Amino acid sequence: MLYLLRMLLMSVHFIVAGMIGILVGLCRPFNPDNSRLCGRLYSLPAMRILGFKVKPEIKGLLEHQRSCVIVANHQSNYDLFVFGGAVPARTVTIGKKSLKWIPFFGQLFWLSGNVLIDRGNAQRAKKAMLATTDTLQHKDTSIWVFVEGTRNKGRGLLPFKKGAFQMAINAGVPILPVCVSTYSKHMQLNNWHATDVLMRSLEPISTAGLTQEDLPALIEQCRNQMLACIEELDQQLMVRA
Question: Higher pLDDT residue, 116 or 148?
Fold first, then answer.
């Protein structure tokens, strides 16, 4: 019963937040700070509705002063709400083109200046990635990427896609990893007990002087750091339990 109530409230919230967000987007279309505002618009009420308690350790992320590529693990559709409150200023997201067909959210995603990539068209995808690299270099804007490319559903980190790291090397900007604990296995949406979620941003990984030949080592370095961080966060939750 509680699960159904939460899903009903989330449906209403999703529509209302989308409508308000579209109004914000129409007032300042494609402003790169729209994502931060709308992320909080979606996240803050949703955390109360879902019964999530997120403890963020992300001072380094929020205080980072220059463009970077932010990479995060991707567990479920609820990541929109879990990470929404952590989006820093002037940050846009890369998403698949099909997102634009989601009522309200898709239009908001586009108006917020986020990057929509057609993965089925290599030429268009490459063009979008080149434009994103230019954004990193010249527009004081960071890019948020769910680096696995799809949801891992709490089964551990999937292999990382290369695109985020290629962009960072080409633009000469650092990689900034952000991790959340494995919450998707422990959600209790039909229970009043809260779902605890830990979030942590890591130290930026410099790409200065790197070339595409350094790509495998850069990906391995980032993935190993994120694996160790997620494991530590999960162990902290086990101790609390």
Answer: 148
